[in-house]
Amino acid sequence: MSGPSAAPRPARDPGLQPERTRLAWRRTALALTVVTVLAVRLAFTGDLGGVLLAGVTLVVWGAVLPVCWRRGTGTGPAPTGGRSLPLAALGAAALAVLGVALVLRGLW
Amino acid sequence: MWESIRRWFDPRELRSVGSTPDYRFSLANERTFLAWLRTGLALVAGGLAAAQFLPPLPLRHLREAIAIALLLLGGAVAVRAVDHWARTERAIRLGEELPASRFPAVLALTVGLGALLLVVAVLLRALGGR
Lengths: 108, 130
What we know:
The complex is a heterodimer.
Chain A: H1 13-43, H2 48-73, H3 84-107
Helix pairs in contact in A: 1-2, 1-3, 2-3
Chain B: H1 2-8, H2 11-16, H3 23-53, H4 62-94, H5 103-128
């Protein structure tokens, strides 16, 4: 409840919300990088197919990381929505599909 | 289905419905999406780790089955996260009730059941191995 004092308190919350969101984007970028490292390690078997699959994994990472980075380093609140969110989600889904392909490839 | 995918990528359409809310609500919605996305990425990382760090299991291809199950679950979590984010954003802008979802409960039960199966497997191995 707001007290009787009308003096405006220092605006802490408006500053913290964008900051928390930026840090959340950076954590997500970090998680994406960990997944990419694991996928490249699984893909890289030395033969041509392994090199190609590792390359595809790195391309997905290279496409999504700048998206996370832009959203995670901007100043002030970013506008609602934007393509960053679906792009990041589809990048994660693409890594999952790529992982399934890598596991199936290891079976034969 | 394609309609909703197109809608995820069209921020103008999202911004055209209802009225712009306090931006803190939008940012909170975005952070919730990111938390779900990291949950999905953690599942994907678990699948990739299972595929390459687990020793071959007594049941044929069980290791690969575990890895693929985790990977598919992780991908589903990521796609569902963006869909839920878009629907929540819409509801906030229109001043409607937030969309209800059974997904968190289903995911929690799935993970709990998987953990229980692994506990049983480890116990069976410990008791039967000696």
